[in-house]
Amino acid sequence: MTSIWTTLKEYAKLKTGTHRIDEADSWELFILRNHKKIDLSYHAGRFIQLGHSIGNFMPVPPGFNVGRSNYGKWDYWDLTLSQIHQWYMDNPGHSEYINNRALEILFANDRNKQTSIFNCGMWLKSFETWERFIQQNYMESFVDKNGVPKRFFKSHSLNNPLPTTIKEFEEFFKTVNECIMVRGKRIIAVMQARGYAEQRPQNNFKDKPVEESTLK
Fold first, then answer.
1. CA gap 59, 12 in Å, rounded
2. Which of 21, 37, 74, 151 is deepest in the core (most CB within 10 A)?
3. CB neighbourhood size of 193 (10 A)
4. Which residues pair with 157 in a beta bridge?
């Protein structure tokens, strides 16, 4: 739902003062060589851990992830969820005429734009309402008390998709971690209640202090 790699590369660039790496190198090697300069914060380390947990995954229609990512820049679930929310607001009751303006924007840079819009529209219609979409996908932690999608940091938008300061990164990490962790716990509780998972503690969702040195 939210890319770890896109954010991690921007975080590494800011921490090291690097704007690009040599074409013969790789980001993996660059980060390993510069890990002391990068010095992951606790919340950054938690994001890398939680980003690979069930709270950051969900089924989507064909072409959806590639289409909405804008080559990674928009690969953030709050941005995607905002456009989905707008689609439901634009189509109350799903009249004969469907307003796909929100999806036109979301898939603006998709090579298979019209196919992605069609598949996404059919998918969203299957939930009937925004409230059911949130409920059936266990997205309550991603919206505020009014049912509006939360922003991972204050100025986050399709026009401003990437954090640019340490303050924005930390706000992003804290917010997305909470969203993923709460959703993951909910999904696991449902799976356990239905007999699909064992009743045992889930280490990925234990939010207890970790020594900074273990995350570097």
1. 30
2. 74
3. 10
4. 160
